[in-house]
Amino acid sequence: MKKGGHIVVLRSRKKKRLNRSKAGTIFLTFILILFGLFSIWPLVFTVCNAFKPLSEIFIFPPKLWVQNPTWDNFADLGQIMRSSWVPFSRYMFNTLIITVGGTIGHVLLASMAAYPLAKHKMPGHKLLFSMIVLSLMFSNRVTGIPNYIVMSKIGLVDQYAALILPAFAYPLGLYLMKQFMEQIPDSLIESGKIDGASEYRIYWQLIMPLVKPAWLTLIILVFQQLWGSTGDQFLYSEQLKPLSYIFGQIVLGGKGGVARSGVVAAAALIMIMIPMILFVLSQSRVIETMSTSGMKE
User: Whole-prediction pTM value?
Assistant: First the structure.
């Protein structure tokens, strides 16, 4: 169709229609709500337990909602922490050093290693990527002994670096960043080179902003893993222990036993609260990254 000397192409856009009845939609929504409630049940139970008195914690059959909320569990937890010869602030400081240092280092190293794998196709890049995918099969328990041997040989046992440096080498981060960077057009990198940008500038000012969902996802995953790490296989000095270690001792009964079940519930809530808030604030980025990289939750 010609209009004003220009050719206008009209395309009919057909709206996709779902081949599902209204009753099917209602049934599917009901199933999703049911599974959602089932999934959130442990979280709600943990939150409610932290505010229950002992009389409600040991009631049978157990009840989900708290009837007489109390702050005594948190007060008892604070009293236990104050009785320790290492102050609570020291445990928190150790946790922040390990978590923040390991997370930042992993994101930077994984992104810098993924950039040449995704965009520079050097010899052997397929073999390297196959090794990365293969390494995803090994859990931390399998690599625990090799990590300890390496840290012991270089003299980093009983130091923060014994937990921070192994976090740099998590293969999941390199996998996600590489898969995400492959979708960036090569023309964008070529235009940066034409403008005189160096490889470092292209990586930092062009690539990293475009893969923001990927490195936000890495921050959540690595932060959660390091936040819950006790470090007992590498750290022996009490002044270097993270917060999860002392809370783990409380859970195991080393500082109270059955009478401290309310304190255990309060400690569990504190440990999951920070990673949970971080995930809620960035969950859309996590879903986007997982769908883009080909992984499924």
Answer: 0.75
